[in-house]
Amino acid sequence: QLQLVESGGGLVQAGGSLRLSCAASGRPFSGYTMAWFRQAPGKEREFVAALSRSGTSTYYANAVKGRFTISRDNAKNTVYLQMNSLKLEDTAVYYCAAAYRADPVTDRYAYFGWGQGTQVTVSS
Question: Strand runs (DSSP E) across the chain, as ranges?
């Protein structure tokens, strides 16, 4: 069973940067599409970014395009989310998840192995 553990969240001022990590264990990591989602208080969980199994294709929500970068290191069984130019509206709990196949990649119901999440708080 694939297990995912997120880390790297914290409190940061608007305009700052954070890098989130998601460590995978329990199953071969390279066979999954990996994604980050986020959930703000009182809101639905929303898609942030996804990365193909090979790492050659990336997908981003319009709200984060140009500011966030998703990457993976299959040798380390880890996926990352580099977040730059953070805004107040990026405040949320960030989750990573895996999918055998997600079409569209934004479909959260295609994903499994949700971790416990890591809190990102952006202050003014």
Answer: 3-7, 10-13, 18-25, 33-39, 46-51, 58-60, 68-73, 78-83, 92-99, 118-123
Contact 23, 77 (CB under 8 A): yes
Q: What is the pLDDT of residues 36-63, one digit of tens each?
A: 999 999 999 999 999 998 888 999 999 9
Calculate Rg over the CA atoms of the chain: 13
CA 52/CA 101 separation, integer angstroms? 9
Q: Are 50 and 59 in contact (CB under 8 A)?
A: yes
Q: What is the dihedral of CA 38, 70, 83, 21, to 10 degrees?
A: 70
Q: What is the pLDDT of residues 92-115, one digit of tens each?
A: 999 999 999 899 999 999 999 998
Q: Do the Cβ atoms of 83 and 66 come closer than 8 Å?
A: no
- Residue 70 makes CB contacts below 8 A (sequence gap 6+) with 34, 35, 36, 49, 50, 51, 58, 60, 79, 80, 81, 82
How far apart (Å, rounded) are the C-alpha atoms in residues 67 and 114? 24
Does residue 104 have a cis bond before it (omega within 30 degrees)? yes
